Amino acid sequence: MAVLPDKPFKLGTTSFIFPDHIIPNVKKLGAFFDEIELLVFESMPEEVLPSKDDVKKLLELSQKLNLTYNIHLPIDVSLTCDDLKKRQTSADMLLKVIDLFTPLAPSTHTLHLDMPKGIKTDKGNLRQLKDWEEKARQGLGALVSGLSNPGIISVETLDYPFSLVETLVEEFKTSVCIDVGHQIKYGHNLLKTFEKHQYRTSIMHLHGVDFSVPSGKDHTALDKLPEKHFRQVQFILENFEGVVSIEVFNLENLNRSLAFLSKIFKNIAPCV
Predict the structure, then answer these.
(1) Boundaries of each Xylose isomerase-like TIM barrel domain copy (predicted)?
(2) Domains, the chain, ranges and CATH?
(3) Mind listing the pLDDT tens digit for each residue in 64-86?
(4) Exposure letters 229-240 (e unless 16+ CB within 10 A, then b)
(5) What H or E segment, with its residue span, contains residue 14?
(6) Whole-angstrom distance, CA of residue 138 vs CA of residue 235
(7) Cα(29)–Cα(42) distance, rounded to whole angstroms?
(8) Strand 109-111 vs strand 68-72: parallel, antiparallel, or unpaired?
(9) DSSP per residue over 141-188, as a string?
(10) pTM (2 decimals)?
């Protein structure tokens, strides 16, 4: 297999490769990547959020290391929950996080539109599904109403078929985050998703799936990808010009993933 001279995309990874806070991770990783995915999974209590001084330091590091950022928005709040007041509170919290990181000019802010397990396992219940979709519409609407550019939000492909939220993405003019590992783990058509949403996809989350583990273990090294998925991933990477974030959470899985990518593109080296 010929190795291509360079990658067409910006390469990134997460801010939790080393068991430490965001800033130490950025300091250690920044020289090896184009972009860092800042993991802001928790919003409560508010003390867990980075401070304004932290954001100032991240800005200084981005300038020093010629680095950009994207934000993974908190997953401890829900825009799709049953309670209208809680959906608005969730939207307000997400807007607060977006505002906090505005000085960094992030490439995108990745959003989960979570679906309760009971609905995912009973998709034939159309009334229940439509009810969830309407709550998601109201929650997403509350979020984007506070934004001048809804395109800074990238709705992530999760464990349910992305077709269930395509109309919302189109309606609110958001971007898309294609999580490659999720698509593979849950048996969705990765190529179809990419071909349909490539033009609105700002970021891709890239990680392996180990099917030797019951139900498949994701967010592991890329060399765990089954061979039948390798060509699909290669085709997508060769034709994508956005951000590709290796979404793993330790150095071993990161370096094994970089070694995997070096078989496709030149100028990709281990992180040391």
Answers:
(1) 26-262
(2) 10-199 (3.20.20.150)
(3) 999 999 999 999 999 999 999 99
(4) bbebbbebbeeb
(5) strand 10-14
(6) 36
(7) 22
(8) parallel
(9) HHHHTT-S-GGGEEEEP-SS-GGGTHHHHHHHT-EEEEEHHHHHHTT-
(10) 0.96
